[in-house]
């Protein structure tokens, strides 16, 4: 099978593309199963799945907080269940459903009792073992400032050092500048420095015979778009290995925000101090000081303490590293010259997320389900369906460069289409606040 994206629409007329109509699609189990089966049938044979260990990787970001989170925050539970039925029919040996949400996610509130009961009943019905797993090594109770470290021992992970092959290497200096908002910067410095770029990938990824990601297509405040490529961040079990931005202003060694400002620098210092004291006294004192300094600097949308803007030149590089590892990584922690596994994407694009994603998105009815065997191609297509300028978004531009001149096929409702004609099915997605002027 060559590079492919196969798209199925779940509406007949454009005027049917409403939030209410798309919500009803999720509750139509037979329709979802039939659509997903038709998408994968020509490309995934029963022999590819029979007797194999399957890893399903949904987009579980955080438990629902707002009413609309049910629709656009995570991969829809009914969508996951439909995918589960489709692959159970193909008689795999086992199925693991796993992800690593943010450390403040309350796992017990992430998954509904309906979902858990349904998974259990499907396991009994088909006589196939189905496990659900939280990949996180560290969790935090934000309300109580209580940190639980190393809840899973490191021997359940494979630590990769991609070294000079890392996309981060060209922007790495001898200074400790890499940051993840709300994480200890000193721990990150041990994983990423000149010539060293380590990632902590769940061993289950390499134990699986087939990896299938189930992204929810959303805009993203740091990467522009999150879908088939960025979903692999959840394969990493420890966020201390994941640089999201660099300390300071653009042009002054960092990419957190444009234009140097002393108050913003003070805010960053206070936040660093707080993050070094997570779970310890005075943590909240320093977080409040950080917030106060930041507000006093009168920031615009592009000046975001979490580097949520189009000038973020770090996060896309980290995402590219993770895709390199999952495609070419071996269980001994080395990279092969040959692709080690196929990664399939089944994208939940029925109701997407727009605006301040990934944590505070607004519902965006797109009305599609998409299957692909190439994450780079899939994200370029997703960008087109969101009416984005692919060349102005570093992650998508890198995906385009990675794809190069490789041939590919785009199918939509069984007919071959072309990249330039996807605008007929596109919607105008609202970008995250820091990305409003990303085209300039």
UniProtKB/TrEMBL annotation:
Pfam families: DUF362. Residues 179-382 form the DUF362 domain. InterPro entries: DUF362 (IPR007160). It comes from the Bacteria. This is DUF362 domain-containing protein. It comes from Parabacteroides segnis.
